[in-house]
Amino acid sequence: DQLLSESGMQHHPLTPMTDANLVRVLQAQTQLKVGLLRYDSIAGGVEAVRAKIAELRQQGIGMAIADALSDQDLYTLGSACADLPLLTGGSGLALGLPGNFRRAGKLRDFDAASLPTVEGGEVVLAGSASVATIGQVAAWLEADRPALRIDPMALAAGKPVVEQALAFARDSDETVLIYATSTPAEVKAVQQQLGVERAGTLVENALGEIAAGLRQNGVRRFVIAGGETSGAVVKALGVNLLQIGAQIDPGVPATLSNSAEPLALALKSGNFGSRDFFAKALRQLAGGDQ
Predict the structure, then answer these.
(1) Residue 10 scores a pLDDT above 60
(2) 153 and 16, same structural domain?
Protein backbone atom coordinates (compact mmCIF):
# COMPACT_ATOMS: atom_id res chain seq x y z
CA ASP A 1 0.00 0.00 0.00
CA GLN A 2 1.15 3.51 -0.64
CA LEU A 3 0.18 6.93 0.59
CA LEU A 4 0.85 9.97 -1.52
CA SER A 5 1.14 13.44 0.00
CA GLU A 6 0.97 16.48 -2.26
CA SER A 7 3.34 19.08 -0.84
CA GLY A 8 1.63 22.14 -2.28
CA MET A 9 4.91 24.02 -1.99
CA GLN A 10 5.38 26.85 -4.48
CA HIS A 11 9.12 26.36 -4.89
CA HIS A 12 11.33 25.21 -7.72
CA PRO A 13 10.56 21.49 -7.83
CA LEU A 14 14.16 20.35 -8.14
CA THR A 15 15.64 22.27 -5.22
CA PRO A 16 17.46 19.44 -3.37
CA MET A 17 17.46 20.99 0.10
CA THR A 18 13.77 21.85 0.01
CA ASP A 19 12.75 18.39 -1.16
CA ALA A 20 15.12 16.75 1.30
CA ASN A 21 13.60 18.76 4.12
CA LEU A 22 10.08 17.74 3.12
CA VAL A 23 11.05 14.08 3.16
CA ARG A 24 12.94 14.49 6.45
CA VAL A 25 9.95 16.13 8.20
CA LEU A 26 7.52 13.41 7.11
CA GLN A 27 10.03 10.63 7.82
CA ALA A 28 10.20 11.77 11.46
CA GLN A 29 6.46 11.11 11.77
CA THR A 30 6.19 7.57 10.41
CA GLN A 31 7.89 4.19 10.52
CA LEU A 32 7.26 3.74 6.80
CA LYS A 33 10.04 4.69 4.43
CA VAL A 34 9.36 8.08 2.81
CA GLY A 35 10.30 8.98 -0.75
CA LEU A 36 9.86 11.77 -3.26
CA LEU A 37 7.77 11.85 -6.42
CA ARG A 38 9.67 14.63 -8.14
CA TYR A 39 8.31 17.13 -10.60
CA ASP A 40 10.25 15.67 -13.52
CA SER A 41 8.15 12.51 -13.18
CA ILE A 42 4.90 14.45 -12.89
CA ALA A 43 5.79 16.56 -15.93
CA GLY A 44 6.09 13.30 -17.88
CA GLY A 45 2.38 12.61 -17.51
CA VAL A 46 0.17 9.92 -15.98
CA GLU A 47 2.16 6.88 -17.14
CA ALA A 48 5.45 8.40 -15.99
CA VAL A 49 3.96 8.97 -12.53
CA ARG A 50 2.66 5.41 -12.35
CA ALA A 51 6.06 4.07 -13.39
CA LYS A 52 7.75 6.15 -10.71
CA ILE A 53 5.30 4.93 -8.05
CA ALA A 54 6.08 1.33 -9.04
CA GLU A 55 9.79 2.09 -8.77
CA LEU A 56 9.36 3.65 -5.32
CA ARG A 57 7.43 0.58 -4.17
CA GLN A 58 10.29 -1.67 -5.31
CA GLN A 59 12.57 0.46 -3.13
CA GLY A 60 10.39 -0.28 -0.11
CA ILE A 61 8.93 3.21 0.07
CA GLY A 62 5.47 3.32 1.67
CA MET A 63 4.86 7.08 1.50
CA ALA A 64 5.75 9.53 -1.22
CA ILE A 65 5.66 13.31 -1.31
CA ALA A 66 4.71 14.71 -4.72
CA ASP A 67 5.59 18.09 -6.18
CA ALA A 68 3.00 20.13 -8.08
CA LEU A 69 3.18 23.57 -9.61
CA SER A 70 -0.06 23.86 -11.59
CA ASP A 71 -3.62 22.59 -11.77
CA GLN A 72 -2.60 20.32 -14.62
CA ASP A 73 -0.07 18.65 -12.32
CA LEU A 74 -2.88 17.95 -9.85
CA TYR A 75 -5.03 16.43 -12.60
CA THR A 76 -2.07 14.23 -13.56
CA LEU A 77 -1.57 13.11 -9.96
CA GLY A 78 -5.27 12.38 -9.54
CA SER A 79 -5.37 10.14 -12.58
CA ALA A 80 -2.10 8.38 -11.83
CA CYS A 81 -2.99 7.64 -8.21
CA ALA A 82 -6.48 6.25 -8.80
CA ASP A 83 -5.58 2.90 -7.19
CA LEU A 84 -3.79 4.25 -4.11
CA PRO A 85 -5.61 3.74 -0.79
CA LEU A 86 -4.94 7.22 0.59
CA LEU A 87 -4.01 10.66 -0.71
CA THR A 88 -3.54 13.66 1.52
CA GLY A 89 -2.61 17.28 0.90
CA GLY A 90 -4.07 20.63 0.04
CA SER A 91 -7.62 20.74 -1.27
CA GLY A 92 -6.30 21.26 -4.81
CA LEU A 93 -5.26 17.61 -4.88
CA ALA A 94 -8.96 16.72 -5.19
CA LEU A 95 -9.11 18.34 -8.65
CA GLY A 96 -7.92 15.17 -10.31
CA LEU A 97 -10.08 12.69 -8.42
CA PRO A 98 -13.59 13.03 -9.93
CA GLY A 99 -12.34 11.80 -13.28
CA ASN A 100 -11.37 8.49 -11.65
CA PHE A 101 -14.87 7.97 -10.30
CA ARG A 102 -16.42 8.96 -13.62
CA ARG A 103 -14.27 6.50 -15.57
CA ALA A 104 -15.23 3.77 -13.09
CA GLY A 105 -18.91 4.53 -13.60
CA LYS A 106 -19.34 5.68 -10.01
CA LEU A 107 -20.14 9.32 -10.71
CA ARG A 108 -23.16 10.54 -12.57
CA ASP A 109 -23.11 13.91 -14.28
CA PHE A 110 -25.64 16.55 -13.34
CA ASP A 111 -25.91 20.31 -13.35
CA ALA A 112 -25.03 21.46 -9.83
CA ALA A 113 -26.56 24.84 -10.55
CA SER A 114 -30.04 23.36 -10.85
CA LEU A 115 -30.83 21.61 -7.58
CA PRO A 116 -34.57 21.13 -7.17
CA THR A 117 -36.22 23.87 -5.14
CA VAL A 118 -37.50 22.64 -1.78
CA GLU A 119 -40.82 24.08 -0.66
CA GLY A 120 -41.49 24.80 3.00
CA GLY A 121 -40.33 27.00 5.85
CA GLU A 122 -36.78 28.18 6.42
CA VAL A 123 -34.54 29.03 9.36
CA VAL A 124 -31.01 30.13 10.24
CA LEU A 125 -29.25 28.37 13.13
CA ALA A 126 -25.87 29.66 14.34
CA GLY A 127 -23.67 28.12 17.01
CA SER A 128 -20.25 29.38 15.98
CA ALA A 129 -18.42 32.11 17.89
CA SER A 130 -16.01 32.84 15.04
CA VAL A 131 -15.34 36.33 13.77
CA ALA A 132 -17.19 35.75 10.48
CA THR A 133 -20.30 34.33 12.14
CA ILE A 134 -20.37 37.14 14.70
CA GLY A 135 -20.43 39.57 11.78
CA GLN A 136 -23.16 37.59 10.02
CA VAL A 137 -25.34 37.59 13.14
CA ALA A 138 -24.72 41.33 13.53
CA ALA A 139 -25.78 41.95 9.93
CA TRP A 140 -29.02 40.05 10.55
CA LEU A 141 -29.75 42.04 13.71
CA GLU A 142 -28.90 45.34 12.02
CA ALA A 143 -31.51 44.53 9.37
CA ASP A 144 -34.05 44.27 12.22
CA ARG A 145 -34.89 40.67 11.38
CA PRO A 146 -36.31 38.38 14.11
CA ALA A 147 -33.70 36.57 16.19
CA LEU A 148 -33.53 34.62 19.43
CA ARG A 149 -30.33 34.02 21.36
CA ILE A 150 -29.79 30.68 23.10
CA ASP A 151 -28.34 31.07 26.61
CA PRO A 152 -26.04 28.16 27.59
CA MET A 153 -26.55 28.93 31.27
CA ALA A 154 -30.31 28.58 30.84
CA LEU A 155 -29.74 25.23 29.13
CA ALA A 156 -27.51 24.13 32.01
CA ALA A 157 -30.24 25.15 34.47
CA GLY A 158 -32.73 22.92 32.70
CA LYS A 159 -34.94 25.72 31.43
CA PRO A 160 -37.22 24.97 28.43
CA VAL A 161 -34.97 26.74 25.95
CA VAL A 162 -35.73 24.40 23.04
CA GLU A 163 -39.49 24.76 23.51
CA GLN A 164 -39.15 28.55 23.70
CA ALA A 165 -37.15 28.63 20.49
CA LEU A 166 -39.69 26.49 18.66
CA ALA A 167 -42.51 28.74 19.86
CA PHE A 168 -40.57 31.81 18.77
CA ALA A 169 -40.11 30.43 15.25
CA ARG A 170 -43.70 29.24 15.04
CA ASP A 171 -45.13 32.62 16.08
CA SER A 172 -43.00 34.70 13.70
CA ASP A 173 -44.29 35.83 10.33
CA GLU A 174 -40.70 36.06 9.04
CA THR A 175 -37.69 33.80 8.77
CA VAL A 176 -35.92 33.70 12.13
CA LEU A 177 -32.36 33.37 13.31
CA ILE A 178 -31.80 31.23 16.39
CA TYR A 179 -28.23 31.63 17.61
CA ALA A 180 -25.82 30.94 20.41
CA THR A 181 -23.09 33.09 18.87
CA SER A 182 -21.32 35.24 21.46
CA THR A 183 -18.18 37.33 21.77
CA PRO A 184 -14.97 35.53 22.77
CA ALA A 185 -15.19 37.07 26.25
CA GLU A 186 -18.75 35.80 26.73
CA VAL A 187 -17.81 32.34 25.48
CA LYS A 188 -14.84 32.20 27.86
CA ALA A 189 -17.02 33.22 30.81
CA VAL A 190 -19.53 30.45 30.08
CA GLN A 191 -16.76 27.88 29.58
CA GLN A 192 -15.23 28.81 32.92
CA GLN A 193 -18.54 28.10 34.63
CA LEU A 194 -19.64 25.02 32.70
CA GLY A 195 -16.42 23.63 31.28
CA VAL A 196 -15.46 23.81 27.62
CA GLU A 197 -16.84 20.42 26.57
CA ARG A 198 -20.13 20.71 28.46
CA ALA A 199 -20.80 24.24 27.21
CA GLY A 200 -20.29 23.20 23.60
CA THR A 201 -22.31 20.01 23.92
CA LEU A 202 -25.26 21.79 25.52
CA VAL A 203 -25.51 24.31 22.69
CA GLU A 204 -24.96 21.80 19.88
CA ASN A 205 -27.53 19.37 21.26
CA ALA A 206 -30.06 22.15 21.77
CA LEU A 207 -29.67 23.44 18.21
CA GLY A 208 -30.01 19.88 16.93
CA GLU A 209 -33.24 19.42 18.89
CA ILE A 210 -34.51 22.76 17.62
CA ALA A 211 -33.75 21.75 14.03
CA ALA A 212 -35.62 18.46 14.45
CA GLY A 213 -38.59 20.27 15.99
CA LEU A 214 -38.62 22.84 13.22
CA ARG A 215 -38.71 20.10 10.59
CA GLN A 216 -41.78 18.65 12.29
CA ASN A 217 -43.28 22.13 12.06
CA GLY A 218 -42.72 22.33 8.30
CA VAL A 219 -39.26 23.88 7.97
CA ARG A 220 -37.45 22.41 4.98
CA ARG A 221 -34.61 24.89 4.31
CA PHE A 222 -31.81 25.23 6.87
CA VAL A 223 -28.84 27.62 6.95
CA ILE A 224 -26.40 26.41 9.60
CA ALA A 225 -23.34 28.33 10.86
CA GLY A 226 -20.63 26.42 12.68
CA GLY A 227 -18.85 23.14 12.03
CA GLU A 228 -19.91 21.38 15.22
CA THR A 229 -23.37 22.92 14.93
CA SER A 230 -23.70 21.62 11.37
CA GLY A 231 -22.73 18.14 12.53
CA ALA A 232 -25.26 18.20 15.35
CA VAL A 233 -28.05 19.45 13.08
CA VAL A 234 -27.34 16.95 10.30
CA LYS A 235 -27.35 14.14 12.86
CA ALA A 236 -30.60 15.35 14.45
CA LEU A 237 -32.24 15.59 11.03
CA GLY A 238 -31.11 12.07 10.10
CA VAL A 239 -29.30 13.26 6.97
CA ASN A 240 -26.73 10.75 5.69
CA LEU A 241 -26.17 11.84 2.10
CA LEU A 242 -26.08 15.25 0.42
CA GLN A 243 -26.14 16.29 -3.21
CA ILE A 244 -23.79 19.24 -3.66
CA GLY A 245 -25.16 22.21 -5.56
CA ALA A 246 -23.93 25.62 -6.63
CA GLN A 247 -21.56 27.71 -4.52
CA ILE A 248 -23.08 30.33 -2.23
CA ASP A 249 -19.76 31.72 -1.03
CA PRO A 250 -16.25 30.25 -1.46
CA GLY A 251 -16.19 26.87 0.27
CA VAL A 252 -19.93 26.81 1.00
CA PRO A 253 -22.33 25.19 -1.49
CA ALA A 254 -26.07 24.73 -1.40
CA THR A 255 -26.92 21.07 -0.74
CA LEU A 256 -29.93 18.79 -0.97
CA SER A 257 -30.53 15.78 1.30
CA ASN A 258 -31.46 12.37 -0.01
CA SER A 259 -34.33 12.09 2.48
CA ALA A 260 -37.73 10.80 1.41
CA GLU A 261 -38.80 14.40 1.98
CA PRO A 262 -35.72 16.36 0.81
CA LEU A 263 -34.22 19.16 2.85
CA ALA A 264 -32.19 22.06 1.47
CA LEU A 265 -29.17 22.87 3.62
CA ALA A 266 -26.32 25.37 3.63
CA LEU A 267 -23.68 24.09 6.08
CA LYS A 268 -20.71 26.30 6.83
CA SER A 269 -17.77 26.38 9.18
CA GLY A 270 -17.68 29.40 11.43
CA ASN A 271 -15.23 31.62 9.56
CA PHE A 272 -16.66 31.03 6.08
CA GLY A 273 -18.98 33.34 4.20
CA SER A 274 -19.44 37.05 3.64
CA ARG A 275 -21.19 39.32 6.12
CA ASP A 276 -24.51 38.95 4.28
CA PHE A 277 -24.15 35.17 3.97
CA PHE A 278 -27.40 34.32 5.78
CA ALA A 279 -29.51 36.36 3.36
CA LYS A 280 -27.65 35.03 0.31
CA ALA A 281 -27.92 31.43 1.46
CA LEU A 282 -31.65 31.70 2.15
CA ARG A 283 -32.21 33.25 -1.25
CA GLN A 284 -30.27 30.50 -3.04
CA LEU A 285 -31.90 27.64 -1.13
CA ALA A 286 -35.28 29.10 -2.10
CA GLY A 287 -34.34 28.87 -5.78
CA GLY A 288 -32.87 32.30 -6.40
CA ASP A 289 -29.35 33.14 -7.63
CA GLN A 290 -28.74 29.66 -8.98
Answers:
(1) no
(2) no
Q: According to the model, what pLDDT value does residue 111 have? A: 65
Query: For the chain, what percent of residues have pLDDT higher than 90?
Result: 56
pLDDT at 259: 85
Closest CA to 223 of 129, 128, 151: 128
Q: Is residue 290 part of a domain?
A: no
With contact defined as beta carbons under 8 Å apart, do 288 and 257 qualify? no
Rounded CA gap, 272 and 256, in Å? 19
The CA distance from 278 to 280, in Å, is 6
Q: Residue 194 above 90 pLDDT?
A: no
Give 161's contacts (C-beta < 8 A, 6+ positions apart): 150, 151, 154, 155, 206
CB–CB of 206/155 below 8 Å?
yes
Residue 209 belongs to domain with CATH number: 3.40.980.20
Q: What pLDDT does residue 129 have?
A: 85
- What pLDDT score was predicted for residue 148? 96
Residue 186 in contact with residue 153, Cβ under 8 Å? no
The more confidently predicted of residues 135 and 116 is 135
The Cα-based distances of 134 to 216, 252, 277, 290 in angstroms read 28, 17, 12, 26
- Has this prediction a pTM greater than 0.85? no
- Could you tell me the residue range of the domain that residue 54 belongs to? 3-103
